[in-house]
């Protein structure tokens, strides 16, 4: 059942889809420029992703309880202003240290977008409808990781990578009038009344909730594997396999098409199977694809196709895993959906910190480190999905 009258309109879908896409857009658009940034700034460009994910993970833990107390729209407006300001700082940076700092600042604002979009969905929809809506938004938000790298590749062909961040600043500013059309889905009557400091105690409640944390672990481990590809693939494809930076975006976009296709299919699947059943199958497929990726990377079998094809299968499963795990996790804690969404987002995207640091420390110029991280953490996601923490695993 819907918890509030939901304006189920195209504008709502587009706005929420744009908000959900902010994380991907903030990083994917400059992926083709990372090798050039490393050369220009004489540093490790992977750390710019690490900085963003640190800010993104930590700030959500603040914004979640705030949104439960004051509503969803005010934090969204504040977040867009901070995102735009951080993007300007990145554009003006001339060292890795500076850009990492501004990436953290940028992330403090950007994190409000997908986190509060999830909370809005939980405010408006029941469990099955929420999973369907998340799948729909996955299709809409997939435009960002498809267009982003392609656009970024063209920008660096015509000018410098600084222009990419100027573009992000304009996008953040353009979202402000769009947010005026978004309804306030968390009315005053449903807001938390306790002091703000007390609201942070909800994280302890969530961390102690084994059922909730099982789903969070499932999606967080999957995203650790996914970020290994997101951060590592520019160097693997461009430097190792010699793909032109302008064409890197096409290989990246291929994976997103798989996510979109499975997200569309998932809208039907959630009406026929339990969320747990879908998660078990999807994470098993992802783990097998990760294992094949590592096998090809270490043996050299298939060359670039030995990486591209199994990664495509692995990435496609995100169309089921992210939507089902998030919907199942939020369903059990509707009274603190803002804090719950914040914790999910913090651990989901914060998990990418692990990938980026591992790649920065151990990447050897081959696909092997990236592929090994994908395989190990995809298996971890599968194990989390297989756990049975109550007599009936059906949601």
UniProtKB/TrEMBL annotation:
Pfam families: MFS_1 (PF07690). Signal peptide: none annotated. The chain crosses the membrane at residues 12-33, 45-64, 76-94, 100-121, 133-151, 163-182, 215-236, 248-266, 278-301, 307-330, 342-363, 369-389. InterPro entries: Efflux_drug-R_Bcr/CmlA (IPR004812), MFS (IPR011701), MFS_dom (IPR020846), MFS_trans_sf (IPR036259). Keywords: Cell inner membrane, Cell membrane, Membrane, Transmembrane, Transmembrane helix, Transport. Its main location: membrane. It is found in: Cell inner membrane; Cell membrane. Residues 1-393 form the Major facilitator superfamily (MFS) profile domain. It is a multi-pass membrane protein. The keyword Cell inner membrane applies. Belongs to the major facilitator superfamily. Bcr/CmlA family. This is Bcr/CflA family efflux transporter.
């Amino acid at each position: 059942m819907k918890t509030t009258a939901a304006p189920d309109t195209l504008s709502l879908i587009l706005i929420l889809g744009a908000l959900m896409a902010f994380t991907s857009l903030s990083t994917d658009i400059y992926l083709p420029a990372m090798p050039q940034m490393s050369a220009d700034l004489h540093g490790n460009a992977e750390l710019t992703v690490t900085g963003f994910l640190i800010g993104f993970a930590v700030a959500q833990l603040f914004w979640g309880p705030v949104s439960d107390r004051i509503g969803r729209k005010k934090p969204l407006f504040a977040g867009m202003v901070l995102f735009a300001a951080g993007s300007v700082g990145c554009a003006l940076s001339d060292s890795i240290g500076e850009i990492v700092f501004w990436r953290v600042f940028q992330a403090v604002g950007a994190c409000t977008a997908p986190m509060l979009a999830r909370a809005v969905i939980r405010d408006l929809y029941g469990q099955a409808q929420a999973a369907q809506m998340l799948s729909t938004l996955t299709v809409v938000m997939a435009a960002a990781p498809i267009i982003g790298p392609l656009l970024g590749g063209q920008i660096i062909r015509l000018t410098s990578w600084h222009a990419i961040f100027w573009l992000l600043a304009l996008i953040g500013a353009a979202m402000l009038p769009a947010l005026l059309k978004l309804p306030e889905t968390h009315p005053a009557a449903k807001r938390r009344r306790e002091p703000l400091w007390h609201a942070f105690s909800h994280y302890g409640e969530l961390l102690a909730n084994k059922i909730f944390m099982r789903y969070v672990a499932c999606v967080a481990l999957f995203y650790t594997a996914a970020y290994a590809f997101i951060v590592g693939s520019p160097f693997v494809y461009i430097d190792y396999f010699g793909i032109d930076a302008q064409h890197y975006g096409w290989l990246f976009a291929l994976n997103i098409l798989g996510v979109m296709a499975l997200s569309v299919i998932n809208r039907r699947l959630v009406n026929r199977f339990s969320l747990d059943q879908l998660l078990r199958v999807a994470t098993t497929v992802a783990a097998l694809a990760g294992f094949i990726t590592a096998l090809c990377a270490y043996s050299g079998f298939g060359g670039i196709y030995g990486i591209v094809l199994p990664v495509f299968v692995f990435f496609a499963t995100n169309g089921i895993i992210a939507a089902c795990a998030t919907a199942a996790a939020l369903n059990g804690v509707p009274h603190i959906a803002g804090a719950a969404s914040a914790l999910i987002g913090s651990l989901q995207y914060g998990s990418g910190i692990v990938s980026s640091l591992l790649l920065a420390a151990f990447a050897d110029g081959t696909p092997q480190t990236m592929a090994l991280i994908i395989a190990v953490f995809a298996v971890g996601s599968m194990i989390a999905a297989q756990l049975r923490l109550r007599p009936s695993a059906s949601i």
